[in-house]
Specification:
The complex is a heterodimer of chains A (93) and B (224). By secondary structure, chain A is mainly alpha-helical. Chain A is built from 3 helices and no strands. Chain A has a single domain, classed as F1FO ATP Synthase, CATH 1.20.20. Chain B has a domain at 71-222. Chain B is globular and about 55 Å long. Classes of the chains: A mainly alpha (93), B mainly alpha (224).
Chain lengths: 93, 224
Amino acid sequence: MDNMTLIAAASTITAGATIGAGCFGPAMSQGRAVATALSSIAQQPDAAPTITRTLFVGLAMIESMAIYCFVVSMILLFANPFWNHAIAAVPGK
Amino acid sequence: MRLSPDQLILWQHDFVKLNATIATTWALMLLLTLGAWLITRGLSTEVTTSRWQAALEILITGIDQQIKEVGLAVPQHYLPFIGTLFLFIATANLLTVLPSYEPPTGSLSTTTALALCVFGAVPLFGIGRRGLRRYLRSYREPTLLMLPFNLISEASRTLALAIRLFGNMMSGTMIIAILLTITPFIFPVAMSALGLLTGMVQAYIFCVLAAVYIAAATGDSEGA
């Protein structure tokens, strides 16, 4: 396999694997967070605004992990420096 | 495929580039300033005020309340900074309902600039409140061993602020663009609505996190 094919194949496979693996953990933890928040609201409905606000802040922090994986995936697909370098090194195309 | 409005160059002279991010930010600044000036021209303390003034008051008291709940005892000191952050990010994300509008917060430059504002504001507020020596001493807590970790955490949470906002907005616009090429009507509308929701939530998160960092730096439990 020449360089360009190798770079393209590796980038594409890694991009798919990154976004797949990177969404699994945050999704599980967000499910647990919401479940715990719901049960605590059911126990103490008066504290619902505080619990909801803390829940949203926590969800955003967990979500940012998935966002990091998404950004890496997008970089691999659309702003890949290795691919750009390989393309630029192709003589006179 | 264009990742961010940075790559849409509107005008260029040598190395000075005017891209869509800057132009949109200017338009937003004009909109916010003009709107604020128009609404606050005839402020009244009567029982019945204009609708716009009432809306602004709801906004201001809401942000005040949130800052107080984070733990900052005198919200008025921090309201200009955090309120401006919230208004700018919220307006930038909300105007995605307009066609062919790309939010400037979908560009890493804008979100990095906002995160750097928070990075600079946290020590400023901390030193202003506690004095230089006590603020610097807070980096030694709980033990001196934690000093490098505290410094690293300062840098990494600034980076996290920038990437969180950028990632959310960029992914929203990119998903809509991709869906438009596949199923033109229903799903892009649903994703636009979701994008509006996440835009608002991210604006709120950005400001709450900024307030939390400032509260940690000023030692929030020390009263007014």
